[in-house]
Give the backbone structure.
Amino acid sequence: MTTLTILGSAGTHPGPGRACSSYLVEADDYRLLLDCGNGSLANLQRVADVADVDALLLSHLHPDHFADVYGLYYARRFHPSGQSPVDVYAPPGAEAFLGQLLPADSRESFARLCRFHTAAPGATLELGPLEVTLFAARHPVEALASRVRQGDDVLAYSGDSADTPELVDCARDADVFLCDATWLTAGGPYPDGVHMTGRQAGALAARAGAGRLVVTHVYPALDPVQVAAEAAGAFGGEIMVAQDLLRVPLS
Ligand SMILES: [Zn+2]
Ligand SMILES: [Zn+2]
């Protein structure tokens, strides 16, 4: 059985009781983190040992998706049971980009304990029992959407993305579609090619034929319940509001 646990549901910056983007996927005894946004490492430690994370996939290089990589690195470096490396899949240039903020005494161990691999759209990663297929998201920086499959269980994650046909392919018939729904339509107009509104997320889930839609990355000043209500106007399936520490079994 595959289970999703939301470790950070806030978009752009943390809100009261809401960390930034991070999602734990557990299958058998394997643990994959999708993003590692600011504040999320505290939530991770409520449900798992930091040393038990097998791989991390960064959707893109905005701080609300990677800032707690630093905490993950230090927690693995000083872990009571000893050091252990973690595989980090990310868009090109991530290791050099993230390494810039580390002082000289930490760079060698960062490279040793966070083993970076370049991830690109079209690739399929075999991560333990999980098959992860990557798609191009539409965002101001290079960004990945991911489709995570174990057996018949499928989770699709938009990362940060505006509406794009690639996301329909990513989320086609997925059991759970975890989708960027940052904004409410009424607050627009918004810049093109950045995020989606609740309504756009709902329409996308409907086009993809997703089973359940989880609206996430809602901007902290907005009410996620209102965003979900907007999505319901375009999607007839079950809709859930992402909240930190919510567990969502895929089947
Ligand atoms: Zn974001
Ligand atoms: Zn972003």
Notes: Helices lie at 40-47, 63-66, 69-77, 94-99, 104-113, 165-171, 198-208, 224-232. The pocket of zinc ion (ligand 2) is lined by residues 60, 62, 139, 160 (CB under 6 Å). The chain has a mean pLDDT of 98. The radius of gyration is 17 Å.
